Predict the structure of Class I SAM-dependent methyltransferase.
Amino acid sequence: MSPDLRPPAGQDPVARAYDERAAEYREVAGDLGLMDPRDRELIRRWREETPGRLLDAGCGPGHWTAFLHGGEGRDVEGIDLSSAFIHGARAQYPHLSFHHGSFRTLPQASGTVGGVLAWYSVIHTPPAELPDVFAEFARVLAPGGSLLLGFFVGEPRVAFSHAVAPSFFWTAEALSPLLAAAGLELHWSETREREPGEISSRPHGALRALRS
């Protein structure tokens, strides 16, 4: 994998943008009750079907990390660029482990993670940098490990104005060769339109890829 070319976490413009709006984000999207029930069910099934340690890459305020931990007390960690998110997550979920840093340089040892959840957390990643991100996800995943990725569906690599920071559309078909280059095989994908009243009106996409 090539080195992380982005600024350190505290200097990253996406991190700064989320730091500045962390409280607002928690109000509108930082609680499981605000999430689409279909997303909760998808991530619940993935959690139950994925053995081993789990990593919430781009964990935000930690609500999905706590969901992954679940009633069974799964071994799970979260990581995020935003120091404000990590501070809040540690305060709200003191029984869980959260790291402040980039998922381009994950602290986990190679082959030690059973599953990586990247739920709308690579949407701000410039397309040219995404192969390195997938390579890092693949590095920490054990053979047979699983990546569950959420994204906005649209013309691949086209930027759009997100409420916090510039973002990029993708499709599962366009992501598949990037995943394959990192040793991740596309196993399943879905696309669906949004329901009235959802936080975003942009079409939803998700995929699951397996580490070879």
In short: The CA atoms of residues 126 and 168 lie 7 Å apart. The chain is about 30% helix and 25% strand.
